[in-house]
Amino acid sequence: MLEINNVDIFYGKAQALTNVSVCVGEKEIVSVIGANGAGKTTLMKSIMGLVHPTAGSITFKGENITKLAAHDVVKQGIIYVPEGRRIFPSLTVYENLFMGTYSKKYSKKEIEDKIEEQYEFFPKLKERMDQLGGSLSGGEQQMLAIARGLMADPKLLMLDEPSLGLAPIIVEDIFKIILDINSKKNIPIMLVEQNAYMALESSSRAYVLELGIVKQQGDASVLIEDDDIKKAYLGG
Amino acid sequence: MKRQMKKWLSIFMVVILVASLTGCAGTPSLSSNGGTNTQKPDNKQQEEILIGVSAAITGPAPFDGERTMQGINLAVEEINAAGGIMGRQIKIISEDDQNTANIAVNVVNKLVNNEKIVAIIGPHRSANAMATEKIMSDAKMPFLTGASSPKLVTQVDNPYFFRIRGSDSFVGQIIAKFALDELKAQKIGVIFNNDDYGTGGRDVVISYLESKGVTPVVVEGHNTDDKDMSGAITKCKDAGIDCLIMYTHDPEAAIFARQMNEMGLDVPVVGPVTFTLPTFLSLVTAEETKGFYSVADFVSGNPDPVVTNFQKAFTEKYNVEPDLFASAYYTSVYILKDAIERAGTADRAAIQKALLETKDLPSVYGKLYANADGELVHSAVVAEIVDNKPVYSTTVYE
Amino acid sequence: MTSFFQLLLGGIGMGCIYCLVAIEYTLIWNASGLVNFAHDKFIMLGAYIFAGTLVLKLNLPIILAVPIALFLMAIFGSVAAMGIFNPLSRLNSNIYAVMGTIMLAKILGEATRLIWGPAPFNLPSFVKGAYKLGEVSVSKVYLLIMIATIAILLIIEFMFKKTKVGIAMRCVAEDKTAASLMGVNVNKNITFTVALSGMICCVVGILIIPVFNVSLGMSTMIGLKGFAAGIVGGFGSIPGAIVGGLLIGIVESLYSGVGPTVYRDVVAFVLLIGFLLVKPKGILNSKASK
Predict the structure, then answer these.
(1) Mean pLDDT lowest for which of A165-169, B57-61, B337-341?
(2) In degrees rounded to 5, what are phi and psi of residue C217?
């Protein structure tokens, strides 16, 4: 579905990604793990058009999206829940969810229906509808960010560090939700995570990024048993 | 590629910035005869008499400058067509002083440094004349201006200064006298512009009133370009004035007229020439100027044949009525002609001496004569603004 | 006592103008991080288009001239956004944007002088006169200003809360990247914001014609004071613009009733400097007060 082929990305003179190729299939959850600064977020940004590759191409469902700007990538159906959540703190929960549908032309009823749908995964949102996004806890903001992403009926959902800054019990909840989204709604998910364990546990395939290069890739169940990976990312 | 673009964009921007700053802030030279510095070894050109002009072409009251140049050019045309001065043609070198003191200083410096210029007309506003009078006297350059502030004579002793309008020391007295004697005012409000013109007028008016035992109940100043006069008007209303004396320029006077009308300050207003100026009248309505009186130099409707002839010639050439600026600066050229002819030669010292001896020169301002202070005009006309038009009432002599 | 009410009224009237000016540049600031140094020329241009061309030259009735002028200024704002604000806001340093808008101001000033001439003029019968409320004289124009200000505030409030583009504007102001991830075309949104700001400038320009006449310098002071109002009320905040505008308007008006009117304009700037020194976040404690 999503194909990133031989992509190079530079920030000024520094090369952030070298010859990176990644793909995500129709029903998959695919993880990209690696240390801080490995290039994981850069990869996501390049898909979203926030930064453009100097070499290589990115295609989505056969369409070449390499040079598209972010708002046009969104219109293709790729939704990115960025690192740090980045919900709009001065907007209410309702308004945040509303903005999630910006790229679509929903009627007022359709938006109401879509919000109802989110209560299935995120029941707590219901009582917080009129609260400002900035007043929610970290975990609630993450849920809001994901719910906001789902509002647009994504064809591919990308999550950047969903576990960042959250208590372990919340992280478990979040990953349960991620699995549910994939299985119940049939949405393919691309996941970038520092928490390699949770990521590999939840995905079907994974890539290991190191200093801008794809060091390893394969089935997540295999990688999770790999000695090198265990040593580097899973605490021995 | 992106970085290169940024570099070019920044160079481009700097170029535009420099170009626009020099283009817009420079003082454009407006010579009525084309070039200024070309010295053709042509006999005819060497015989020309060069007169410098510092006029307010741009700035807060640009019509003043336009009329100034029109008046000057009409006079120059008439004189040159009749053979010029002593057989020599007049050539005008004019600069835009933007009606601003520091620009006027630059302009006058430029003009006095041109050795071929033998006399200067302008700058007009008192503030600008005050700022440049020393440059004139240092260069021994006789200059004629319509600046009416008495300060040019009381605070300054400049033998090269010649005034071609009634001084405010004279006009101001007429205004105050009119308020007391004709309008029978008892509680007078004085509104003045904070510049040399307004403060000069205010001082004359107040000192005349006090010499008659009357103290104005409100004295309020404002700045050029001020747009809201409600504070001063409220103070006047509170004091219950029955007459307002207003010494300011046309844009500010127009705002006063309107706001007075809206706020219900319904008293007669007496002031200098300002209220007869088309640039004032075009901004106000008849209702707002009801009861306005102007002590002016020049008003159409004056039956004096010199005035009507000038009016006819000006209107025919420019399709617009002459005003104070047109008449004053038209007259200034004729004053210079008279002085140069009496001096027999066109050089600064001789002209200055001859100007001081001006006597019995007919003009649109009556018979002109020079007193020891360089004042040339000694009469004024009183006009009432009726139906938003100045109506000639009477002529007063010093 | 009547003079107090008289001055208060005038103060509220002018305060509304400062408030509108503060709003129009705050909108651009919030959206693009740029200060529109040409905003007073936008106001002047709106007035000249309305009075000079539409009413005096083409003899259109006021009821037609106003929307046409608003429309033209919206177009002008869009062009300015596409040509100047958007490209310049992307460059590394803000200095280019500052230079760009300053130059735009100069160009607009000169262009206006060339097109309509340097002499001030007036619309003699446009919103003239006053109503009498007892001893107090209520200028029709101040009434109109207050009504227009309330209308604009309500429209903006509605836009920000209930329309897609308005909510998107708030997002663009808060986090441009996140907004683009919602599918918002940030450049288009900023263009819309500048167009909206241009329309507000046009309204201000039209409203001040009965007070100031149409002249090249008509809007310089209110541009500066509106700027001060935004800072006093809390930079970047719309409610702050209202508070700051009214505060400056009322204080300067009341001052002119007691102190020498020559120093009237100083009041706004004394307030500005005072707030910058003592409470730089403004009355309403805005976060954006850099």
Answers:
(1) B57-61
(2) -100, 15
φ, ψ dihedrals at B292, nearest 5°: -95, 135
What pLDDT, on the 0 to 100 scale, is given for residue B219? 93
Neighbours of C22 (CB within 10 A): 30
Of C174, C177, C182, the CB nearest to A74: C182
Residue C242 parent element (H or E): helix C238-258
pLDDT for position B46: 53
- The string of pLDDT tens digits covering residues B79-123 is 999 989 988 999 999 999 998 899 999 999 999 999 999 999 989
Q: Output the six-digit token pair for B217.
A: 């109940």
Query: What pLDDT does residue B44 have?
Result: 47
Give CA B128 to chain center in angstroms.
10
Residue ranges of the alpha helices (H) in chain B? 2-25, 43-46, 62-81, 101-113, 126-138, 151-154, 168-181, 196-211, 230-239, 250-263, 278-281, 305-318, 324-343, 348-356
Place of tokens 């200098």: B272
pLDDT digits (tens, 9 = 90+) for C253-290: 988 888 887 788 888 888 888 888 887 777 776 655 43
Q: Which residue pairs from B31-36 have beta carbons closer than 8 angstroms and sit at least 24 positions apart in sequence?
A: B31/B92, B31/B93, B31/B94, B32/B69, B32/B73, B32/B76, B32/B91, B32/B92, B32/B94, B33/B91, B33/B92, B36/B93
- Checking if the pLDDT of B20 tops 80, the result is no
pLDDT digits (tens, 9 = 90+) for B131-163: 999 999 999 999 999 988 888 888 888 999 999
pLDDT at position C137: 82
Q: How are strands ordered across the β-sheet holding B117-121?
A: B29-31, B90-96, B49-55, B117-121, B143-145, B161-166, B375-377
A51 is written with which tokens?
Answer: 């930064």
Residue in C with minimal Cα distance to A95: C167
Annotate chain A with DSSP letters as a single string.
-EEEEEEEEEETTEEEEEEEEEEE-TT-EEEEE--TTSSHHHHHHHHHTSS--SEEEEEETTEE-TT--HHHHHHTTEEEE-TT----TTSBHHHHHHHHTTTS---HHHHHHHHHHHHHH-GGGGGGTTSBGGGS-HHHHHHHHHHHHHTT--SEEEEE-TTTT--HHHHHHHHHHHHHHHHHH---EEEEES-HHHHHHH-SEEEEEETTEEEEEEEHHHHTT-HHHHHHHS--
Asked whether B31 and B72 are in contact (CB, 8 A), the reply is no
Cα Rg of chain B (Å, integer)? 23
The residues, ordered by sequence, that sit 6+ positions from A227 with a Cβ below 8 Å of its Cβ are none
Residues from chain B contacting residue C218 (CB–CB below 8 Å): 227
Residues 207-266 of B with CB under 8 A from C: 220-223, 225-232, 234-235, 237-238, 251, 254-255, 258, 262-264
Residues 6+ away with beta carbon under 8 Å from B331? B71, B75, B164, B363, B364, B365, B368
Whole-angstrom distance, CA of residue A188 vs CA of residue A183: 9
**Which single residue is written with the structure tokens 């005012």?**
B185
Residue C222 C-alpha, separation from nearest chain B C-alpha, in angstroms = 10
Is the CB of B13 inside 8 Å of chain C's CB atoms? yes
Name the stretches of chain C with pLDDT < 70. Answer: 285-290
Cβ contacts of B237 on chain C, cutoff 8 Å: 3, 6
Residue A88: what pLDDT? 94
Among candidate residues C54, C58, C32, C35, the one with its CA nearest the CA of residue C45: C54
Q: Of A9-18, A28-37, A122-131, C280-289, where does mean pLDDT reach its minimum?
A: C280-289
Model pLDDT, residue B50: 93
Do residues B270 and B175 lie in contact, with contact meaning Cβ atoms separated by under 8 Å? yes
pLDDT tens digits for range C25-72: 899 988 888 888 999 999 999 999 999 888 888 888 888 999 999 999
